[in-house]
């Protein structure tokens, strides 16, 4: 890729950091995919970013647009690409040759944590059916297939690009909660049948046989079922699969809908498959980036993987990543993981302390010396301070000590000055990095509320009683926080992660708040620090990748072969102009008129003026609307509330601006 001599030199310099970062990750309990690292130059990095982290993608103009945007961002806005890693087995990560050694180490540790997340989060397993991915090969096959279509003299290249543009407008409209299966496998087995009576006539059966086997009541029931059947039977969230099975292409020359060609159906399924592959990354952005930032910080900072002469550069690196403006998934994710770890560890300590004779939830804060507790929670010096001159005092039979590694260290085969963690087991690492013993978390146990203490006490099952605090704390499980984090890593996505673990305590600790655009003052105002409000605001950003949820409701709307789509309104209106542009694309996939029902909020001008004078927000009225496109013109009509009641919001933040949703 980049200059061969430069790449080889940098690769040699990074061989040890790459190997030891993987070793350190495993000592901490991570179990990542193997990672192949590539050295690339600045321009190649921009290309990879444009290609979503892969070296080969199908030919299309949008990659050039993304490349140009990335190039200008780094050139004029001072942006800096730190890492790219893709979900594959083995994973592939790309290191920019111009980055400093501290930056390279930060990327490598960050990547190892990403590879662990890819390997264990169930949402990534949905695409592969639990198998490990082979994404690079899949995307290369897709690229070859589409390139062949574009090179085919009987197919207009512009038609292929236009078809890709059309499908890409809908690539978030898939059923992201279901395991991927090919649309060819999902194709309905039910077909439109001719009248059953006519088919029986063709069989030339005797009248007595027909009357005996196929009575009139049975024939009528079959007619009724066929006449009333709707497509789809239930609202369909995977629009791309629906169009593969039932859609048609609009032919400009013929002026009507025609059957999709083989290449159109093939490209549609290719892009649908890629949408499902990338869905898990979109669904777990906060979790995944927070997970990687958490373990990177521990490895680089607390385990001094960044050398003394590299630490300031690394600190600047992390500050830039965590300090990025706007909704920052690195910062939010890392803070949530740390809060979960602290909360689980606190619960573990509280349960021990509440079993000490004389300590109850009522007198907890009065009788406990929290400074003394902090000292007892500090890691044993045996795991906290490891040096060559202390190796002789380490006990190889201690469960916190890796006996085999200790023997090698004593023989001089391991440099404990650079890699002290090598002589520890995962249990030793958990104690060494116990979260409640860290200075920044000193007050976390102390501020436990009486309500939580009472709740823990109420559900505390009978167990060992302790004579004193020291005896209780000696049995604290230092791995409890990490164990719970590993469980959450496997099962959650961003929506469930935020919904379950974002609490009022977290919001207060990290200074989160909501802000709204006010119609009365035409500006933004901070409105709430209540965790429910913050949670709603965040969930709007992550539900369905932060995009409107659209489903197919009827493929024979009004019995005219028109398509009826529905916007599942969550309090945020569609941008009507963008919705119309999308309906134009949908028309190309259906070939006949398309309809979209939604809910809009309308504000009476008089009510708005009154609200302005009273310095309050006006109350909008929600109305059902149907937008129809027939291939030439748009029409909009009112719908009765009963027609949109099933897609209307319930308990959602109604004040968020539409352009925040669509950004």
UniProtKB/TrEMBL annotation:
Signal peptide: none annotated. It comes from the Archaea. Residues 12-348, 477-546 form the SpoVR protein-like N-terminal domain. Residues 548-599 form the SpoVR-like C-terminal domain. This is Stage V sporulation protein R-like protein. It comes from Halococcus saccharolyticus DSM 5350.
């Amino acid at each position: 890729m980049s200059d061969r001599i430069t790449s080889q030199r940098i690769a040699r310099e990074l061989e040890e950091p790459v190997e030891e970062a993987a070793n350190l990750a495993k000592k901490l309990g991570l179990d990542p995919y193997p990672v192949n690292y590539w050295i690339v130059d600045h321009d190649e990095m921009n290309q990879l970013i444009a290609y979503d982290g892969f070296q080969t993608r199908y030919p299309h103009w949008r990659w050039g647009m993304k490349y140009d945007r990335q190039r200008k961002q780094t050139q004029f806005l001072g942006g800096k690409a730190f890492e790219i890693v893709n979900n594959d087995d083995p994973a592939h990560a790309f290191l920019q040759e111009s980055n400093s050694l501290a930056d390279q180490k930060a990327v490598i540790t960050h990547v190892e944590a990403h590879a662990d997340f890819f390997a264990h989060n169930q949402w990534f397993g949905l695409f592969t059916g639990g198998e490990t991915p082979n994404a690079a090969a899949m995307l290369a096959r897709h690229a070859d297939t589409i390139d062949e279509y574009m090179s085919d003299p009987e197919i207009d290249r512009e038609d292929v690009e236009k078809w890709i543009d059309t499908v890409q407008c809908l690539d978030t409209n898939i059923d992201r909660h279901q395991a991927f299966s090919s649309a060819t496998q999902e194709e309905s087995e039910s077909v439109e049948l001719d009248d059953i009576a006519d088919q029986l006539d063709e069989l030339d059966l005797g009248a007595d046989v027909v009357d005996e086997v196929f009575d009139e009541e049975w024939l009528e029931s079959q007619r009724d079922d066929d006449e009333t059947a709707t497509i789809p039977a239930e609202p369909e969230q995977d629009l791309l699969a629906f169009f593969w099975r039932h859609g048609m292409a609009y032919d400009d020359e013929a002026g009507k809908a025609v059957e999709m060609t083989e290449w159109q159906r093939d490209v549609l399924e290719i892009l649908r498959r890629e949408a499902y592959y990338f869905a898990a990354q979109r669904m777990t952005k906060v979790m995944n980036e927070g997970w990687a930032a958490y373990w990177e910080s521990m490895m680089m900072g607390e385990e001094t993987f960044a050398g003394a002469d590299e630490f300031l550069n690394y600190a600047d690196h992390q500050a830039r990543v965590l300090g990025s403006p706007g909704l920052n998934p690195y910062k939010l994710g890392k803070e949530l993981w740390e809060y979960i770890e602290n909360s689980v560890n606190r619960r573990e300590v509280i349960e021990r302390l509440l079993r000490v004779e004389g300590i109850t939830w009522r007198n907890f804060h009065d009788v406990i010396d929290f400074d003394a507790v902090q000292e007892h929670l500090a890691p044993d010096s045996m795991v906290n301070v490891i040096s060559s001159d202390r190796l002789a005092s380490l006990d190889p039979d201690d469960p916190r000590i890796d006996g085999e590694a200790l023997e090698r260290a004593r023989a001089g085969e391991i440099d404990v000055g650079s890699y002290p963690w090598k002589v520890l087991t995962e249990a030793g690492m958990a104690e060494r990095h116990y979260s409640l013993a860290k200075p920044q978390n000193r007050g976390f146990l102390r501020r436990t509320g009486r309500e939580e203490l009472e709740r823990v006490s109420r559900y505390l099952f009978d167990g060992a009683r302790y004579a004193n605090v020291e005896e209780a704390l000696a049995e604290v499980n230092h791995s409890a926080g990490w164990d719970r984090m590993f469980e959450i890593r496997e099962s959650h996505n961003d929506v469930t992660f935020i919904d379950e673990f974002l609490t009022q305590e977290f919001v207060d600790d990290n200074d989160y708040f909501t802000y709204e655009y006010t119609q009365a003052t035409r500006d933004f105002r901070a409105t709430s620090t209540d965790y429910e409000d913050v949670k709603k605001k965040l969930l709007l950003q992550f539900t369905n990748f932060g995009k409107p949820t659209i489903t197919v409701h009827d493929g024979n709307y009004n019995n005219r072969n028109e398509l009826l789509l529905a916007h599942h309104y969550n309090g945020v209106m569609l941008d009507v102009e963008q919705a119309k542009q999308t309906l134009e694309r949908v028309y190309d996939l259906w070939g006949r008129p398309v309809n979209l029902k939604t809910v809009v909020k309308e504000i009476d001008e008089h009510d708005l003026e009154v609200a302005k004078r009273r310095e309050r927000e006006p109350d909008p009225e929600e109305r059902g609307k149907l937008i129809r496109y027939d291939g030439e013109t748009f029409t909009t009509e009112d719908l009765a509330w009963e027609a949109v009641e099933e897609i209307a919001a319930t308990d959602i933040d109604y004040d968020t601006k539409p352009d925040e949703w669509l950004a």
